[in-house]
Specification:
There is one protein chain. The protein is of the alpha+beta class. Helices cover 37% and strands 21% of the residues. The radius of gyration is 26 Å and the shape is elongated.
Length: 430
Amino acid sequence: MSSVNYLDTLLNGAAVEWRALGEVAKKISSGGTPQTGVAEFWEGGTIPWMSSGEVNLGTIYKTENFITESGMRNSSAKFVPKNSLVIALAGQGKTRGKVARTRIDLTTNQSLASVIVDEKVVNSDYLYHFLKSQYENLRKISSGSATRGGLNLQMISSYKFPVPCPERPERSLEIQAEIARILDSFTELTTELTTELTARKRQYNYYRDRLLSFDEMGEKVEWKALGDIGEFIRGKRFTKADYVQEGISVIHYGEIYTRYGVWTDNAFSKVRDDMAGSLRYAEPGDVVMAGVGETVEDVGKAVAWLGTHRVAFHDDSYAFRHSMDPKYVAYAMQTASFNSQKTKHVSSGKVKRLLIEGIKKDVRIPVPYPDEPERSLAEQTRIVAILDKFDALTNSISEGLPREIELREQQYEYYRDLLLSFPRPHEVAA
């Protein structure tokens, strides 16, 4: 399908008018947060309440798994009806400027703007796809810095979008609906793949935990404390100001739970060469563990370093030096058993920290055939080979389902940009 020609066919010479959202919306408003700390507002709640982070879900079909059940009284709730749009006014990271569409009635928090459209003028699904294409522009017009800026209702209300064939409302809605249909067909493929990926990850996690439980090996496996298997080495400090394009390879603790998987042989970041003497290094085969994080889940996340050279690592992380298969150790550090043990040795402050002395003494992983080193390594290698296949299917960005999803998303964005490439007023004038 040639999207440019198809768009020309749909328009058939009709004009395009750019209109402000405020002109076609029945209502544009922000939500609110129920009173915190008051049980009656939260316990046994019946009103779906959407937080700012959930705007990343795109289409809100149901309340399970991602919407907090708020106990707000109906008289105080600001309901957003289904087939409306929700735009993030503010939020951490890259949330600001993201847009979602509702398929249920819900309420939102104060950092989300709801746009209730007049369906006699604009197709809400068409508008959803257009606003998704405007993410970068919405961020540019927001006030404040890149990390702390924000949109407001006036900015949303005055933001313009293209209305094809405005002089014939029925034909305009037909064109909008057809564009939305085509783009939804691409998103449906992505949704199906994402659902499949979620199911495969659950299956992988179950199988990994079962495989590394060694339930049937009896005395042929020994659960050993990490301190008895190897030693923990703390890294040395460096900051983002030290980063350069070419220099010494480093692993930052935050990258361990955001950018790395079970293993890596290439570091994402580098620091200045003149820092060489002030850094501490992980050797090939070491497992680098995050010592700090915002959540208990992040702390203790580990990546096996399989590079051919040593790599520097941050002082809020530890290198675990041992004589086992490094991938095997990293996989063992992902299991539910490991996480359950680890949780007992994480500080409870706002910033979570790994209490390394407790980790050394009390956290254990299984060592097969502990009295037969060669056989033990062979068994570890066999288990790693099995888990590598699952890991590639569920986590690899170069193969498996994540790669397929990425390609489908790129395909959607390509056709979306072509189908929504309406000329702006100044282009028409030119």
